[in-house]
Amino acid sequence: MRLVFLGSGGYYPNERRQTACIMLPEIGVVFDAGTGFSRVAGHLATDELRIFLSHAHLDHIVGLTYFIVPLIDGQVKQAQVFAQASVLQAIDEHLFAAPLFPLRIDYLMQKLDGPVLLPDGGRVTWCPLQHPGGSTGYRIDWPDRSLAYITDTIANGSYLEFIRGVDVLIHECYFPDDRTNLAEMTGHSHTTPVAAAARDAGVGQLWLVHIDPLHPEDDPIGLATARAIFPETHLAEDRLEIEI
User: Residue 94: which pLDDT band, with cuts at 50, 70 and 90?
Assistant: First the structure.
């Protein structure tokens, strides 16, 4: 199954990275709807989408406003948005407030209240994360593989049991270790604790996302540091596709 990184950056887009959006085209699943969501239409392989939002900060939801044409043209017959009730309320009251965005897009809003079953036999579960205003992490378990998506949080080990043993862990790593103070101040992660979480949870691969847009260079977070702790660490790039 293909996984596509449509937006691997954080906060705001730069020339290298759009903001948070990850897609599993074959099953029509998307995690977060940042500016990278503008690329979803080019990867559609189903006529239904299930969009799982981590939280309501703009770099994770603004892309919901980009999807008018695929819905009007019938490329997608139904698009469900799964999130905490407070996130859905914020989208309704603020993102789609008439003075900001006068058209109502026909999303089916679904409050998270338990596991979500996918048509291919996958089972989506979720857990709360530590971040200003709150955030939600997701996990998909299939009979033969598993995936977790953890973004916008302090890597403090509180969710280790939730991600334990997944084949692929996608985890934010906004800052390198020399910016620990900023990570703590903003509720984000830095390199060493993220790699340690992957090691301690016994995951297969670690893919780092939500990279600081002020640093578009090839190695903004210290890959050598991460790989010394967890060798199977990789830095995601926009439009990169991997098999899970």
Answer: very high
* pLDDT per residue as tens digits for the range 189-228: 999 999 999 999 999 999 999 999 999 999 999 999 999 9
Contact, 232 vs 242, CB < 8 A?
no
* Nearest CA among 33, 42, 53 for reference residue 134: 53
Question: Is the per-residue pLDDT at 103 higher than 90?
Answer: no
**Would the pLDDT of 243 be above 90?**
yes
31 vs 28: CA distance, rounded Å: 10
Q: Which CATH architecture has domain 2-243?
A: 4-Layer Sandwich (3.60)
